[in-house]
Amino acid sequence: QVQLVESGGGLVHSGGSLRLSCVGSGLTLSSYSIGWFRQAPGKQREGVSIISASDGRTWYTDSVKDRFTISRDNTKNTVYLQMNSLKPEETAEYFCATARWTTWDFLRFPLQAPDFGSWGLGTQVTVSS
To answer: Which of 6, 44, 12 is nearest to 25 (CA)?
Structure first.
């Protein structure tokens, strides 16, 4: 059974930090490019960041550059999203997902949800002002 499980969300004050984790079960995350998305109530799901399967290449949406860092620990079958200087408008459910293809050039940027196959159930991030 393929499963992605996110954790690490919570309530934090504006300017605070959180580290999200995405653990794979039934699949080896190192074989996939892994993306992070977020969705606030009433808004579309937004691609936040992605890390490639092969060479560690990364991409960030403009609004999080220099504040968020995506990384992976293959020994733990885990991908992380370190989020610093969080803003209230970043309150959302955060999801990780596996890209449908391994070729980086096949991905669309900004990230598009249909390009991703397996999804976790999400972890809630709430940033208070």
So the answer is: 6
Q: Which residue, chain included where needed, has tokens 């059974």?
A: 1
- Smallest CA-to-CA distance from 97 within 43, 1, 32, 9 is with 32
Contact 104, 73 (CB under 8 A): no
The answer to whether the CB of 93 falls within 8 A of the CB of 39 is yes
Residue 50 three-state SS = strand
Q: CA 81 to CA 113: how far, in whole Å?
A: 18
Chain centroid to CA 13: how far? 20
pLDDT means per 10 residues, the chain with 129 residues, are 94 98 95 97 96 93 98 96 98 97 90 96 97
